[in-house]
Amino acid sequence: MLDIIADYKLEKLLGRGGMGAVYLSHHPLLNIPLAVKIFEPHNSIDQEEFQQRFIREGLLAASIEHQNLVRIYDAGADGSRNFLAMEFIDGPDLGELLKNSPNGLDEGFVRDAALGIADALKLAHTKGIIHRDIKPENILMTPKGYVKLADLGIAKDQESELNVTATGIALGTPHYIAPEQALDACSADQRSDIYTLGATLYHLLCGSTPYDGKSPLEVMMKHVQEPMDHPIVRKPSMNANFANVIAKMMEKRPEMRYQNCDELIEDLRLLKTSKSLNHLKEMYEHKPTTQHLPNKKKSARSPAPAKKGFPVKTVIGGIACLILLGVISLALIPEEQTEFNATKKPRESILKNATTETPVSPETVHKPKADIDLIKATSLDPLSTQLNEALKHLSKINKLTAIGPNNYQIKDGLINLDLSGQTNLKDVSPLSPFKFGELDLSDTSVQNIYLIKNADILNLSNTEVKLEQLKSLNIRELELGIIDDIKPLIGSSVKTLKMMHYSGSSIEPFKQLSLDRLIITNGAPKIIQRSSFDESGKRLRVFLYSENMRKGLPSSDLQRRPGPKGFQKGPGPRFAP
């Protein structure tokens, strides 16, 4: 029923959302149209807390004024009802525009809109305000074609001691929410806004959201766990530089995104000059294949993309070995047979050219002569020969493709093997005889991990395994995904433990592990207030045994490293150049 709230007559219902209803009204003195938002508290949260949060929203939003922000004029309470009086925008939101453009909006328009919204967020961030809910429906377009960011309804004042999201509810919209915000609403910062803006741009350009699911929780956990389709895979016709900007905005690890809006704005402005963003091209260069179609649901068990070539050091080392073998063989070959082919391509370029082809079975691929020479050279090492046979057998029993020499390195008798993203991989029995320096089984479906007896570094993030199976293995460093109970690891040889998120409520199991280092990239809200954790040695022991230190220990900088499939990273396997 329409009536009056404070001095504002509610004339027409404009819309209703999860945070409340919005009505058309007029300013009693200025006689300009206003949009009045009446807040509806959620049943699961204390009413007084909601009122504090609602009024605080108005104070935060009214403290800044920007041409790309919807202006707030008034905020308050009328009895049990809370309200905001804000600028009325007589135009559609970008969500409505998308309904009429299912393949995405004009790229130039989206780029200019991104620049305006990023500049508005920059101002908000300088005042300690985090928006937390950027989405197409919260970006309005004026009759003159300008865009304005609306709905600071779940804004967060970083400087205030009053934390209106202390309940830890993942406030935000699931299709655009940042991974750290999905795990703990209190951990959102300016980099979270950059992620949600990136997810919004992804939708506006591609016509589909980065992730979809049957429930809000499923969608949020995909933001946390699953690798993201590069935007250009969804829409091959889009500008590659713009696609790479979005990919960086949506890195799962906050420290790998743009760290502030200044950095983002710099690259968005370069887009307008048509200059190539080479620093992003090296990280995210991606060539789409016909196996990925726009707006088509991705198979949950699709094969991993073709791997790239060896690292440069490995290639150089291999060439040196071949040269040495060639010199030795000269003494055994008649003089008329010692002429070399001066036009033969270096091995590195051969590998790069070979791996750009569409993935096919190793048994059916037609290898050029130079590639055959490479396989022969590799087979000179008995360990390589054994491993190649094991990988062939592994591919056959698990129905994998594109697994071979490009997936591994051998150093000092230990194997570094990258099988990340092989979602069909269940049986690793062919690998049981080998000793691994580093074994990446992230984002796989391994069921018999207990057969891998020796792996100095083992990555199982985004892979469901029974931790009990790891106790008998010789592992120094272990990486896991989201864990709620680490008791099964007690008694294991693990010295460095990395995990994406710890949802358990007790710190006691950590005390019973003989850890030298503990890393939790997306927090453990039930045992520590920090959004990320990385401590070792004495500081780790202090953390484990001191309640005060657990509450206030300063954060350590996380070192950047190539991430597994669970964390967004540049293209190519870990051991690519």
From TrEMBL:
InterPro entries in the record: Kinase-like_dom_sf, Prot_kinase_dom, Protein_kinase_ATP_BS, Ser/Thr_kinase_AS
SMART domains given in the database record: S_TKc (SM00220)
Domain Protein kinase, chain residue ranges per copy: 8-270
First-tier enzyme category under EC: transferase
Assigned EC number: 2.7.11.1
Superkingdom: Bacteria
Pfam hit, one: Pkinase
Binding site for ATP: K37
SUPFAM superfamilies: L domain-like, Protein kinase-like (PK-like)
Coiled-coil spans in chain: none
Disordered: annotated span: 553-577
Keyword Oxidoreductase in record: no
Biased composition (Low complexity): 564-577
Sorted UniProt keywords: ATP-binding, Kinase, Nucleotide-binding, Serine/threonine-protein kinase, Transferase
Molecular-function annotations in GO: ATP binding; protein serine/threonine kinase activity
Signal peptide: none
PANTHER family with a match to the protein in the record: MITOGEN-ACTIVATED PROTEIN KINASE KINASE KINASE 20-RELATED, SERINE_THREONINE-PROTEIN KINASE NEKL-3
Protein name per Swiss-Prot or TrEMBL: non-specific serine/threonine protein kinase
